[in-house]
Design brief:
heterodimer, A: about 400 residues, mainly alpha, two-stranded antiparallel sheet, 14 helices, about 0% strand, B: about 250 residues, Alpha-Beta Plaits, four-stranded mixed sheet, 7 helices
Chain lengths: ~400, ~250
């Protein structure tokens, strides 16, 4: 047996308070499973932001349209990696696609993921960039001309009829894409929400809470990227766009907060058998990550900041600073949300009589470093995507 | 002996020898055992709380029989000790979890009642672990056991999360989910599960719910029966007699 594991579990044995079933000492879903819903949430949120432009014609946020799509793609490409690394037998993961158990929520992963990647995101990006790719490939030299021609799948039609078809296709894909994005992340919520054995997870609100927090984190991420990348390109930040993004973010946070409050009040009022152990869990093991980081720093403070910005006429420079602070705090809060769901749900015994501890590895495959690398990777992918498919580059008419 | 006599006795000897030989053959060979038919059985286990003395022999036998790792984090079966004090506080612990630290329990005045509860996989008729497995690596057999195929399990651990009883663990060597099988390899040979075999007080009763002559059916007839967490509709097939309301 792995000595490190034996030692770690042995230490945890000493940390148990009350009674837990003996097999519950090992925390089975580690930090990697925290990273997974965090990443897919960013995908769904970024895509829904992009669809505001195409479906609801919100012109102010157009400068972030392509950036949102590319962000969604970059994060979607990395999203399955934490799952893969977490498996006891990563080389058998293809079984989920080949011989899925149709009653398993997890087995649907392959279909939902493949549909969203191929049926929605890549397709929309292709129609959006097709004309530009053709024009670019004519303007530039080898090798980028070849790359862009290949990406356009060697299409060459830039007639008005073809462009009109592109626009129509994008419209249709976005309309299909919104429920698909809801499905992608709502489904992640369902994986947890449908576990009746675990009262911390088992809630019909779970998919909806996941979805709203996804929208919050996605908008905050695109705002962050827009605020960082625009000055780097030497361009001014479009404050109309930023204000509009901030107002959407504000409403999304309010809805998210209300839903979580509803879930909380509902549990408290129903006061089922599990309420005592969950209360102890919140007051002890999750005090920092739930009450301080998720609710206070990740929700109340940013909402306060955004209310302050709305109430007092603040200069553009100061607004940027406030927004930037708020979105960093929101990202922290949403990560804490994922942590509290995934790790929090495993810290109490299903006997409802005791608590255990999660001791995170640092260097192991399920450790902190892997998690940090996995969260940095999407940004690297995005960097490549921004080089190959620059969202700002204007193609000659 | 002349030629005529020799041929005469040969006529008698040859058929007689044949008969004797075939009789001997039949006597030596066992009657062919009827092949095991899963559809004729449906297994469950009965546990009589008041008979369990907490000796932990079942746990040790299970670990030996099924290659369950020796460390106190992996169990296919375990025994819990409940102590309910006079102020109604409940203390629960797993018997023998800390090896070498087991000490004599002295009679305490403040104890209202105390008892042991053997636990194992409930082999639910409506098993949440089977429902969630993404690759069908765990399933219910026709004769009522919930089994894991370690050559198919991908180690995602969703089943461990879905089990309300904490009956599953991830085997540190195979990196796949592992759990009680009712000693399926023994049962299909007509043997009892190891834990039942070694129990000195017959607190564990294994049997076939389809056979009226089964000890389990008799156990069900003679006792008031309860199962663990019935509200979750998992329909356990481990039946407890004399189960206390404090047990989860």
């Amino acid at each position: 047996m792995n000595e490190g594991l034996r030692e770690r579990l042995g230490e945890m044995l000493e940390q148990v308070t009350g009674f837990i079933y003996p097999n519950e000492i090992e925390i089975h879903w580690s930090i990697l499973i925290v990273v997974y819903p965090y990443l897919t949430g960013l995908v769904a949120g970024a895509f829904i932001l992009a669809s505001l432009v195409k479906v609801f014609n919100v012109e102010e946020v157009r400068p972030t349209y392509r950036l949102s799509l590319l962000t969604a793609l970059a994060f979607l490409l990395i999203a399955p990696l934490p799952l893969q690394l977490h498996l006891g037998h990563p080389l058998r993961s293809y079984e989920i696609f080949l011989t899925p158990n149709l009653t398993s929520a997890m087995a649907m992963f392959g279909f939902v993921y493949a549909w969203y990647l191929m049926g929605v995101l890549v397709l929309e990006l292709w129609f959006e960039y097709r004309r530009d790719l053709i024009v670019w490939s004519r303007e530039e030299g080898f090798p980028m001309s070849l790359v862009h021609r290949a990406l356009s799948l060697f299409s060459a039609d830039t007639s008005d009829a073809a462009l009109a078809f592109d626009r129509k296709a994008i419209q249709l894909i976005t309309v299909i894409g919104i429920p698909s994005a809801f499905l992608l992340h709502g489904y992640v919520g369902f994986i947890f929400g449908s576990v009746k054995a675990n009262p911390w997870w088992a809630s019909v609100l779970m998919p909806i809470v996941f979805l709203m927090s996804a929208i919050v984190s996605g908008i905050a991420l695109v705002m962050f990227l827009y605020m960082v990348l625009t000055p780097l390109r030497g361009e001014p930040i479009d404050m109309r766009c930023l204000d509009k993004l901030a107002s959407y973010l504000f409403y999304a946070v309010i809805v998210d907060f209300s839903l979580e409050a509803l879930d909380f009040i509902h549990r408290l009022y129903q006061s089922e058998e599990s309420i005592h152990i969950l209360g102890t869990l919140i007051a002890s093991k999750l005090f920092m990550s739930l009450l301080v980081i998720q609710i206070f720093l990740g929700m109340l403070v940013p909402v306060g900041i955004m209310i302050a910005v709305r109430l007092f006429s603040v200069t553009a420079e100061l607004r940027k600073l406030f927004y930037f602070t708020a979105i960093i705090l929101i990202q922290l809060g949403i990560f804490a949300t994922r942590w509290n769901v995934v790790i929090g749900g495993q810290l109490f015994s299903k006997s409802f009589r005791g608590l255990t501890t999660y001791k995170m590895e640092v260097a192991g495959i399920e450790g902190l470093i892997t998690a940090l690398v996995l969260m940095a990777l999407p940004f690297l992918v995005l960097l490549v995507l921004l080089k190959v498919l620059p969202p700002w580059r204007k193609a000659a008419a | 002996m002349d030629k005529r006599e020799f041929l005469k006795s040969l006529i008698v000897f040859i058929p007689a020898g044949g008969i004797i030989a075939s009789l001997a053959k039949q006597a030596g060979a066992k009657a062919p055992a009827p092949a095991y038919q899963a559809k004729n059985h449906y297994y469950g286990m009965g546990i009589e709380i008041d008979k369990c003395i907490g000796c932990n022999r079942c746990v040790e036998a299970c670990k030996l029989e099924n290659d369950v790792p020796d460390e106190p984090f992996y169990f296919r079966t375990w025994v819990e000790r409940y102590t309910i004090k006079k102020d109604r506080t409940v203390v629960v612990e797993t018997v023998g979890l800390r090896k070498g630290k087991r000490k004599e329990i002295v009679e305490q005045e403040d104890v209202l009642r105390s008892f042991f509860v053997p636990k194992l996989c409930n082999h639910c008729a409506n098993p949440p672990c089977v429902q969630v497995c993404p690759v069908d690596a765990t399933w219910s057999t026709e004769d009522g056991a919930v089994i894991v195929d370690k050559n198919r399990c991908i180690g995602c651990r969703y089943c461990i999360q879905a089990c309300p009883y904490g009956a599953r663990y991830l085997h540190p060597k195979t990196k796949t989910a592992d759990k009680c099988t009712f000693c399926y390899h023994r049962v299909v040979r007509g043997l009892l599960p190891a834990c039942v075999e070694v129990c000195p007080t017959q607190a564990r009763i294994f049997g076939d719910l389809k056979s009226q002559a089964s000890r389990l059916v008799r156990f069900e007839r003679m006792n008031k029966i309860h199962v663990l967490k019935p509200d979750l509709n998992t329909q356990p097939k481990v039946y407890y007699a004399g189960l206390d309301g404090e047990v989860r």
